[in-house]
Predict the 3D structure of the following.
Amino acid sequence: MAWLLRDGQVLASLDVASGFWARSRGLVGRRNCDGAMLLRHTKGVHSVGMRFAMDVAFLDRDLVVIAVRRLRRYSIAWPRWRARNVLEAEAGAFERWELKPGDQLEIKE
């Protein structure tokens, strides 16, 4: 298990999906998400098959937030050109964390 941090402060527990199948599945099939999931080497996501709405953050290769958006169930978040990673969390999490474009994130294992 890893941790998602901003400025040394823990935001949430973090699952990291690096492999093809893990990235393809993401949060699909889960009833909820207490922490967050980082999809490595991903530029866009969808919420087809999701049981809940989610917050999505597009991150560059250095884990700097490029854009954030709320994704309703059965929606598509089109790829972002500069994105290299996508962070997913249950809807409302980014508001609680005050996550915004320009934030530098880090992963602690």
